[in-house]
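Retry 2 of 3 after timeout on previous attempt. Resubmitting structure tokens to design endpoint.
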């Protein structure tokens, strides 16, 4: 599989863990981007940090769960404006219904144009949010178009709110908090996480080694435990990976995690996934004690091909696993 990918695709790494052990690891070469700067011929290895894009959202969810576990945030049912008293002039009866949980399920109900190649780099709300003097004011100032919690509508602005909420609750930016309570306990010593206007870019901006992507997946697979230590509560892992809303295609969405189904030996199995633009993915299959991490360089490709490639890698891994008798 990886020989074929090396010859015909821009996949950068494929790692597979089963039974808590790394059983397959392959690094390739290809074109990449770092902070939107193209790199024509990049060579990847076990120590290369890779852009996670929206995989960052699922990692931010774990840090948020730790803040809730520690009582720093009361619950996901808190009204969103309770965290932003300085933005009370933006309140309306419709927006007062928005809860933290709606940011986690991509159901804020606010008008939003996500950044895609068709919008260009500037003609979208994501770019305008990052350029705004107050990104949270920009997001909550958008008009309400549907009742909060009703419909899934992908909105990276929701993570700008989540990042600010974590900073307000714990007294430090998300990247610093995640380093202390998540990355260091997992033995993740190298990472980068950019900031915008002083807040961590929770919607993207995280760079990790693929091996550390596997650690994140393994943590979720083990119900929040790592080396006999409970890093994130099992209750938060269960809540995050429970289907909350129907998402795009045949998938569901939990709290910043994608949920799907695949066939293995004619039997349907369920998986949880952190998915990022360009082909980044961490897929977790509890029934098979399996974690699959993929990185790729299709950042400007929103065609089905980019998604099908990393999804195809996952399916090929499933085919390699013997079916229980």
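Retry 2 succeeded. Sequence:
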């Amino acid at each position: 599989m990886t020989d074929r990918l090396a010859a015909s695709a821009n996949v950068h790494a494929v790692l597979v863990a089963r039974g808590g052990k790394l059983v397959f690891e392959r690094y390739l070469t290809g074109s990449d981007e770092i902070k939107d700067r193209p790199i024509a011929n990049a060579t990847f290895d076990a120590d290369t940090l890779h852009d996670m894009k929206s995989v960052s959202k699922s990692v931010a969810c774990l840090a948020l769960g730790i803040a809730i576990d520690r009582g720093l945030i009361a619950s996901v049912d808190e009204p969103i404006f309770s965290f932003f008293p300085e933005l009370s002039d933006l309140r309306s009866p419709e927006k007062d219904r928005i809860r933290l949980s709606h940011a986690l399920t991509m159901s804020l109900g606010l008008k939003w144009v996500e950044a895609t190649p068709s919008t260009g780099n500037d003609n979208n709300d994501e770019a305008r949010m990052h350029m705004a003097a107050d990104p949270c004011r920009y997001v909550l100032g958008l008009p309400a178009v549907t009742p909060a919690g009703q419909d899934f509508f992908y909105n990276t602005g929701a993570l700008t709110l989540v990042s600010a909420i974590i900073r307000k609750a714990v007294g430090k930016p998300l990247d610093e908090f995640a380093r202390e309570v998540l990355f260091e306990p997992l033995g993740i010593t190298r990472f980068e996480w950019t900031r915008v206007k002083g807040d961590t870019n929770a919607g993207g901006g995280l760079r990790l080694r693929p091996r550390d992507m596997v650690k994140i997946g393994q943590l979720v697979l083990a119900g929040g435990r790592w080396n006999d230590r409970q890093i994130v509560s099992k209750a938060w892992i269960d809540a995050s990976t429970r289907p909350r809303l129907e998402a795009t295609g045949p998938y569901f969405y939990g709290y910043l995690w994608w949920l799907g189904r695949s066939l293995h030996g004619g039997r349907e199995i369920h998986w949880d996934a952190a998915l990022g633009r360009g082909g980044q993915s961490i897929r977790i299959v509890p029934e098979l004690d399996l974690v699959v991490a993929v990185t790729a360089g299709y950042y400007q490709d929103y065609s089905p091909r980019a998604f099908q490639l990393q999804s195809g890698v996952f399916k090929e891994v499933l085919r390699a696993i013997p079916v229980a008798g």
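Attempt log closed. Residues 304-320 form the longest helix (17 residues).
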